[in-house]
Amino acid sequence: xxxxxxxxxxxxxxxxxxxxxxxxxxxxxxxxxxxxxxxxxxxxxxxxxxxxxxxxxxxxxxxxxxxxxxxxxxxxxxxxxxxxxxxxxxxxxxxxxxxxxxxxxxxxxxxxxxxxxxxxxxxxxxxxxxxxxxxxxxxxxxxxxxxxxxxxxxxxxxxxxxxxxxxxxxxxxxxxxxxxxxxxxxxxxxxxxxxxxxxxxxxxxxxxxxxxxxxxxxxxxxxxxxxxxxxxxxxxxxxxxxxxxxxxxxxxxxxxxxxxxxxxxxxxxxxxxxxxxxxxxxxxxxxxxxxxxxxxxxxxxxxxxxxxxxxxxxxxxxxxxxxxxxxxxxxxxxxxxxxxxxxxxxxxxxxxxxxxxxxxxxxxxxxxxxxxxxxxxxxxxxxxxxxxxxxxxxxxxxxxxxxxxxxxxxxxxxxxxxxxxxxxxxxxxxxxxxxxxxxxxxxxxxxxxxxxxxxxxxxxxxxxxxxxxx
Length: 470
Ligand SMILES: [Zn+2]
Hints:
The chain is of the alpha/beta class. The chain is built from 15 helices and 18 strands. The model has no long low-confidence stretch (mean pLDDT 95).
């Protein structure tokens, strides 16, 4: 396939360049100035895609999703989750170990998971292994050793709402960090200090009496100080070289500053950039995530940290749930999680790149390059370069996107982004040179004309990749 005349976002460049891109055997074979590659160039197969006026980006990498399969597939599964990812320009996801059954804490569980999902995904996927607080120190060490070749990192929690996947003790964390560092895999931490949360909840209970819990109370029960304290403790336990530590879904700028300054890495999520606790009044359970969104002051600080690279990249923490689990009428029992893999890239593109909060270079790192590098995938993914997989997104910069739940492919479509208008519109998402998602303009195939985009990849066309992929 020859992509002709696209405005390409190439790694390290300050601005877009008008190019032709030749795709052969699922890889990027050549990128040249527009008009520089002949229509019958070798390996292209003769198909020409006119991309005049479209922007060409590397496929986004969403390094934090909960696709819940096998186990909690009433919330999400690989077919729906990966379809929603493709709709949103994501070509690789990394799935969390804690929200499937059994959790991915042993090789056996990973094999079981691979068997369950391999015929489902329409984009590529990697996994994290889990460090479960229910396991002994010996079990944790053995789990990391046997899972490391098959996963791109390990995940643990300082507080957990899950019965099957418990928080780690300081002793378990210190051992897990040491073992991950010697295996050469990042240890990802959900960082909220349990002591700070307990104290906040006790104070709240005392002040509230028998009054029902409000969204304001819920926010107060998970204070920003908990994130800062958990990062402080984790850095202390990790020791003098914390570079294998990665803090997930940071919403508190002081916590990311602390972690990055010490040499660890951080991600934030689109919802921490877009919303704050004042939005609970309007959105209620549709905004409930764990940890919750933060004080209004944090959004601009997080954007600046993202622009400066203090926050390395952005993930979705995609974790949807059906209405009966979300709208319980009680902020405490409402499911904490939102679907986000389909809104991540369009949001970052509009509010980051087009709104000039991020340079093109930082946008590319934040949406794909930095996560690929962090998780050992940059040999084959994460940028538009000859030799890498032809994972890319074509975007119409002159069109707009309105976030419509009815257009989403995920099982849950309860999202705080509903109704948001964004600049730019995804025209097509390609995985290893094949159309995973396309609007009618790029569909290039038969079938009834659809006004909306469709998934064109077959379930199972996505493949499992791991550290060192090329
Ligand atoms: Zn998560």
